[in-house]
Predict the 3D structure of the following.
Amino acid sequence: MRRGIAVSPGIAVGTAYVITEIYVGGKSAKITSGEVKSELDRFEAARHRTAMDLQHLERKVATQVGPEEAAIFAVHRSILRDPGFSNHICKLISDEQITAQAALRDTVSYYETLFAKSRDEYLQERVNDIRDIAVRLSAYLSNASQEIKKDLRNGKLIVFADELLPSQVVALGDIDVAGIVTQKGSQTSHAAIIARSRGIPAVSGISGILRQVTTGDEVVVDGRDGSVIINPNEETLRAFRKVEREFVDLKDQLAENRDLPAKTLDGVMLHLQGNVNNVADARAAEAMGATGVGLYRTEYLYLTHPDVPDEQEQFENYRQVIAATPGQNITIRTLDIGGDKTVAYLGHNHQEANPFMGWRSIRLSFEHRDFFMIQIRAILRAAAEFPDGQVRMLFPMVTVLEEMRRLRKMVGLASKQLQQAGVATKRVPVGMMVEVPAAAICIDMLLEAVDFVSIGSNDLVQYLMAADRDNPKVSHLCQPLAPAVLRVLKSVIQSCNRVGKPVTLCGEMAGQHRAFILLLGMGLTRFSMSPAFLPSIKQLAAQVSVVQAKQVLAEALEQKTTNQVRQLLTNLLETIAPNLRLMESD
Ligand code: PEP
Ligand code: MG
């Protein structure tokens, strides 16, 4: 048994499918000189078939998911066409007299070493693309792996990967994935977000697990405590199969709440919304009964685009996401790049000692003013397409009042530019994320400049506790239930409520049962979370009253340690919601 970070709740029992394997088979890598020609031909055939697959995938994803998600495949095709890449492989086959598979593996290591040396994060990202292509090529070079894939298509798959690449996630779309396990990653990594939005149990951060698991192994993934068991004995398997059935039954049962209004046991109405990255997520939010999208992270569009999305492309993308959102009720957040997410064309290839405290979000957007104005205009144009919708614009990482004033001016200017160009516009409420302690402490002074507030607890917690949200070494400190965090959250929520400015919390804690109850007690009624958490939170709300929540909050605020707060809430949950234990994610 291995243990990692539980990033998406639930239990899954299934067959391991290791997707980072670049090649399969134990044959010797050496070939004779007489075999070189046929090996080169085999590589050429695999290259041709991979290119056809990518083209097909690009078209399929463009129509079924969206053109932005498909763009990654164009990047991959261009790498495949790049003479530098294929010549490297062919040269190894001829000069070293090794198989195409071995040449492929050595070429990937060559680029890994080369790009690692460059310290350019953009290039490091491209290593993922190269690995991705190598896996595809490898599938054609090795019939064995094709056969395994065919066999496994009928079973329930637990995908194992170093980290899940965006294109792999999209390509897995037609395969029934029951669980995900990754060596790297944390609560906020791409794989975790995708797993949660699809309701797939997932565990991340188990280093070296790929050396212990083989495709075809029987495995158990426990998204409650982050454990993964490889080839368990019959007895263990039987026990987990039983819990897995209970989890699936509970999910089905909770899904029936989809169309019921969200309200607490004592009748307080709540707004439960979804966090999304793209059109597919907006559809998932709808399927889970969200009343809207409380956070649309637009950086995904930039991160998956082969070059730069222009105003028209952005407009069309935002329009599609708004159209897919329930009631066209959506909060669109402007680009939050920097920190751990980078795009090369924004000149982010300089190294920063503290990227999370550095040139991130609006700090970066202000410096690329024209580029930023394009996004603001695209959002305003898309909003105007839905006269009956409720589209809001949200700015990340606001730290001081001057920034908010400057942002408002930019929105005003963008609106004027559109009117002058004869484009219809509509007033769009403007809000700020509260995720920097300075803004949280002075929130009463910032409120005059905003129409609404959204608390980004993922960042607020890491900054308050001075503990990187992606670093497992300090995860014991990066805790949303820490007394310091609770005090600050309570003060922000109450300041907003006092002056009637709508306040939502859109960090991961909105979907965590213990935190949800405390937030309810603080007077919060708007929550935005990974769509998969919506049904259980709706059910939990129906089983807890605001009066109870206020009582437990008062007690929690007296506790001196996070563990004590946690225990208090665990005790309450055991009495009011033992039925939801399987859906807990914290
Ligand atoms: C947050 O910080 O809580 C948040 C919702 O934004 P992100 O996770 O994208 O930083
Ligand atoms: Mg944030």
